[in-house]
Specification:
This protein is α/β, with parallel strands linked by helices and 723 residues long. The chain folds into 3 domains: 77 residues, no CATH class; 324 residues, Glycogen Phosphorylase B (Rossmann fold, 3-Layer(aba) Sandwich); 282 residues, Rossmann fold, CATH 3.40.50. It has 30 helices and 23 strands. Strands 3, 4, 7, 8, 9, 10, 11, 12, 16 and 17 form a 10-stranded mixed beta sheet that branches. Strands 20-19-18-21-22-23 form a 6-stranded parallel beta sheet, sandwiched between helices. The protein binds pyridoxal-5'-phosphate (PLP). Pyridoxal-5'-phosphate binds next to helix 8, helix 25 and helix 26. The site of pyridoxal-5'-phosphate has 13 residues, from helix 8, helix 25 and helix 26.
């Protein structure tokens, strides 16, 4: 496959223009998402053509496709740029070689052990839109951190050619969804090859037929991601569409996708010559992994029970939500239809297998993917301290003979990939004041105490800059929409263009859904208006987030927020930023002053956007749910806690809203606007520093992945004592 900028291939003339001398590996670099979290690599692309870099939403492949030959020639002749380029290539080779890594030093596991990480979504970069939200971000961050630590991990997921939808909000605030077909040549994917060099295709039995899935490969440093795609000519039209969209289809499509992911994923790994020692199921979507693995083991001569025991020993399962709708469950008859071809030799064990998935969460027994994952995994975790406990309570019936204390469910709290989410402004401060090895050591809480030594002047200058980046981003987006679509003036206001650089800015961005209570802060509109419009000490709030396409309740919440943004009562101080994705998220978590979260406790299993914000010096203002129940230290942010009967939702909402207003009025506003003669808010910056200091070590993906390795992967890698 020829990849060097296709624009250089002049049709008919048979002239193939390569990159200028010395730049041959630039394309290779652009095709390894490792660049996206490596500061030198980012700087390298940025400095090639900064306006084009912004225009192409930081996608180097697209940029290299559009860049003029002069810019490349100029770079090739610039010794400073070339020196940086060579440094980056050296770093890339080191990252891929994975020698002297943390994993090698600590694990003593044989180097050929592989962990296969299955997930329905992966959020690695905005140019690869195969994610919807938090679950995908977690999977993406896990892979990146595994690469950094040298953990031998491969990811298995889907290549959705249409990805997740783009959000467009109409003038009256209704969310419209549009799907864009991926431009393959602008994306860092390549065909995955089998050991004999042919493109990998997995055959997946679905019902009475066989569906083929081609496998794509994404390079993520030392980690490789394998993505299944059913959109090939050999498949029937309806099967080609199976992997078209993430969470786009009906129940039946969803079930078939999950069979392709679990059964097809195991088969694809086998075709690729990979024999995982551990299977990590990120959420129940991939639980059909067990079906294919049990079948394979039975084919090798094991009994069903022995095969199940072996699968359990080597399977790790992470569950992500206490919300019932987040656990896929299907009628047995539907599953029976679609897995009909998947049994092979183990058809006689059908009843035993179905029993593994049987669960009644009210409304009769169903084939429940979470139950299946729980009964086929030896090691299970919830994603925060609190969520671990909630998970035990929810699923205790899975283990009727086990006491609560003995349940095989632990808590392993989420974390965020620091090089991905931390702004270079804050990273530079850490480098200067904690030392050039700060990234290596950032998961050591004692080491991070030195954050308190950062001078207020420097920290405030960075915070001001990050806020300016955010507002510039918002204005530029609004300007483009005004230019291209002539949207009405009120909508330009609602996009945040009147936001003021010196006003306390609160961010609220996440999926729009009922349990996250996005409208909580509007419970008393008059009190809120008074807070927002206070002269000289006002507040402004930025909202962003998508509602699931089928979630009309979520869409109504979004519409109400949008209407508030249009309402002059709030003085242009409410804004909605459309099409929340990784790119938007970066600007928001880094540029806001405060990060707000108001879920109905205990339904937020973890939440990770607040961690991203906190490590950038954007403290958390949240209900004490999810990660914040263990993250709040008393001086690194604020806990919203209205006292009311939690079973009375109306009363709880009202009490929480009152508590929220009081915190803003009595604590946030006075602290933020308390300035010295240079305009520096010293008391505020104490909270900012405590936020970075306390959250950076404890809620980083580094701490998280190390914990998965120590407490779940390595034990699962131990060979059984007796067969
Ligand atoms: C981090 C992130 C999320 C998850 O945010 P929560 O706080 O966990 O709800 C969702 N979407 C995007 C784009 C993100 O970056």
């Amino acid at each position: 496959m020829l990849r060097w900028p296709p624009h250089a291939r002049l049709s008919g003339l048979k002239v193939v223009v390569g990159p200028p001398e010395g730049l041959q590996r630039l394309d290779e670099l652009a095709h390894d998402l490792w660049w996206s979290w490596t500061p030198d690599a980012r700087a390298l692309f940025r400095s090639l053509d900064y306006p084009l870099w912004r225009l192409t939403a930081h996608n180097p492949i697209r940029m290299l496709d559009q860049i003029g030959p002069q810019a490349l020639t100029r770079a090739a002749g610039d010794p400073t740029w070339m020196a940086l380029f060579h440094r980056v290539l050296e770093q890339l080779d080191t990252a891929r070689a994975a020698r002297h890594t943390w994993f090698e030093r600590t694990s003593q596991a044989p180097a050929d052990k592989t962990i296969a990480y299955f997930s329905a979504e992966f959020a690695l970069h905005q140019s690869l839109p195969i994610y919807a939200g938090g679950l995908g971000v977690l999977a993406g961050d896990h892979c990146k951190e595994a690469s950094d630590l040298g953990v031998p991990l491969v990811g298995v997921g889907f290549m959705y050619p249409q990805g997740y939808f783009h959000q467009n909000v109409t003038g009256d605030g209704w969310q419209e969804e549009t799907y864009e077909t991926l431009r393959w040549k602008e994306t860092a994917i390549e065909p995955a090859l089998t050991p004999d060099g042919t493109p990998c295709v997995a055959a997946v039995p679905l019902g009475e037929r066989t569906v083929l899935a081609v496998v794509w490969r994404v390079r993520v440093g030392r980690v490789t991601l394998y993505l299944l795609d059913t959109n090939i000519e050999e498949n029937a039209p309806w099967d080609r569409d199976l992997s078209a969209r993430l969470y786009g289809g009906d129940r039946e499509t969803r079930l078939q996708q999950e069979i392709v992911l679990g059964v097809g994923g195991v088969r694809a790994l086998k075709a690729l010559g990979i024999q995982p020692a551990v299977y990590h199921l990120n959420e129940g979507h991939a639980a059909f992994v067990a079906l294919q693995r049990i079948r394979d083991l039975c084919t090798q001569g094991r009994t069903f029970d022995a095969a199940l025991a072996e699968v359990r020993r080597s399977t790790v399962f992470t569950t992500h939500t206490p919300v019932a709708a987040g656990h896929d469950a299907f009628p047995f008859s539907m599953v029976e239809t679609h897995v009909a071809g998947a049994w092979g030799e183990i058809g006689t064990f059908k009843d035993q297998f179905f029993a593994l998935a049987n669960h009644d969460s009210g409304g009769g027994p169903l084939f429940n993917m979470t139950a299946l994952a729980m009964r086929t995994a030896g090691s299970i975790n919830g994603v925060s301290q609190l969520h671990g406990e909630v998970t035990k309570q929810m699923w205790q019936s899975i283990w009727p003979d086990t006491s609560y204390e003995q349940l095989p469910v632990r808590s392993l709290t989420n974390g965020v990939h620091v090089p991905t989410w931390m702004s270079s402004e804050i990273a530079e401060l850490l480098e200067k004041h904690l030392g050039s090895d700060w990234l290596e050591r950032h998961d050591d809480p004692a080491f991070c105490d030195a954050v308190m030594n950062i001078p207020d002047e420097e920290l405030w200058a960075s915070r001001q800059l990050l806020r300016a980046f955010l507002f510039n981003f918002i204005r530029e987006r609004a300007r483009v929409r005004w230019t291209n679509e002539a949207i009405a003036a009120p909508r330009i206001v609602a996009a945040g263009t009147m936001f003021d650089h010196n006003t306390l800015t609160i961010g609220f961005a996440r999926r729009f859904t009922a349990y996250k209570r996005p409208e909580l802060i509007f419970s008393d509109p008059d009190r809120l208006a008074a807070i927002l419009n206070a002269r000289g000490k006002g507040v402004q709030i930025l909202f962003a987030g998508k509602a699931h396409p089928a979630d009309d309740v979520g869409k109504h919440h979004l519409q109400h927020i949008y209407q508030h943004a249009l309402d002059r009562k709030f003085g242009g101080r409410i804004a909605f930023v459309e099409d929340y994705d990784l790119h938007v998220a970066h600007f928001l978590v880094q540029g806001c002053d405060v990060w707000l979260n108001t879920p109905r406790k205990p339904l937020e299993a973890s939440g990770t956007s607040g961690m991203k914000a906190a490590i950038n010096g954007t403290p958390h203002l949240s209900i004490g749910d999810g990660w914040w129940a263990e993250g709040y230290t008393g001086n690194n942010g604020w806990v919203i806690e209205g006292r009311a009967d939690a079973n009375d939702h109306g009363a709880q909402d009202w009490a929480d809203a009152q508590a929220l207003y009081s915190l803003i009025e009595e604590q946030l506003v006075p602290t933020f606007y308390d300035r010295d003669r240079q305009g520096i808010p010293h008391r505020w910056l104490q909270i900012v520093k405590q936020s970075i200091r306390s959250v950076l070590p404890r809620f980083s993906a580094r701490r998280m992945v190390k914990e998965y390795v120590r407490s779940m992967y390595l034990p699962a890698m131990q060979e059984p004592l007796a067969k």
